[in-house]
Amino acid sequence: MQIQPRLAGKHAVITGAGRGIGKAIALLFAQHGAKVTLWARSGAQLEAVAAELGNAAHWASVDVTDSAAVNAAATRARAVHGPADILVNNAGSVVRGPALDLTDAQWRSMFATNTDGTFFVCRAFAPDVRSQHGRIINIASIAGRQGTAGLAAYCAAKHAVVGFTRALAIELRGVATVNAICPGSVDTQMLQEGLPGAVPDMTPADIANTALFLAADAPTALTGSCMDVFG
């Protein structure tokens, strides 16, 4: 008996898909039959990922901090792959430094990318996830569950992602699931930017497998959860 791919016919939109966790999720979702829309700022990175995926992928260079750009890109994504069934909000950035030495611009940039971007993408695809009984997966962080010296702005922004996830899950209960993944240290370029010299506990593939569970296998009753992927 032939086994049906777990995401056959599904359209997944993945932000921050040019490298690291986002790339790993895109590759795994495509392996399981999904059509994938890849967003990130770097067109060169996205083009390379799309080349690995072939016809399953549509990519666009999108700054998720720009709500108008997000809305326009969402319209293009629907035109290519149809309404989105799955959103993976993975785009993020990190700045390191003592909390009270951060500039206004550094503080705001953490919320713009990590928090505002998540909100803008969810809002842009709200009609899709409602009509498709979709699944929203927000990539938060261990920093959204506890504090880390030198990462105060990042911690604050990721705590906001966790709070938004829980509130949106209540609003969309029965229509779509909304969950967050809170990884510990993952072997990515962003980890080394935020915590130079850190020894990671996991690979991006570990988080991709967690995302696949939430996208394909998790019961619809599982919503508003924040899955701590750290010990």
Second CATH tier, the architecture: 3-Layer(aba) Sandwich
Please give the share of residues in helix: 40-55%
pLDDT averaged over residues: 94
Order the strands across the largest sheet as they lie in space.
3-2-1-4-5-6-7
Number of helices: 8
Using the coordinates shown, work out and report the CATH topology.
Answer: Rossmann fold
Rg, Cα atoms, Å: 16 Å
Indicate the proportion of strand residues. Answer: 15-25%
Describe this structure in words.
- The protein is an alpha/beta fold.
- It has one domain: 3-Layer(aba) Sandwich (Rossmann fold), CATH 3.40.50.
- The protein contains eight helices and seven strands.
- Helix 4 runs parallel beside helix 6.
- The mean pLDDT is 94.
Please provide a brief summary of the model.
By secondary structure, this protein is an alpha/beta fold.
Write the layout of secondary structure elements.
Blueprint: E1 11-15, H1 20-31, E2 35-40, H2 43-53, E3 57-61, H3 67-81, E4 86-89, H4 104-124, H5 126-131, E5 135-139, H6 152-171, E6 177-183, H7 189-194, H8 204-217, E7 226-229
Parallel strand pairs: 1-2, 1-4, 2-3, 4-5, 5-6, 6-7
Helix pairs in contact: 1-8, 3-4, 4-6
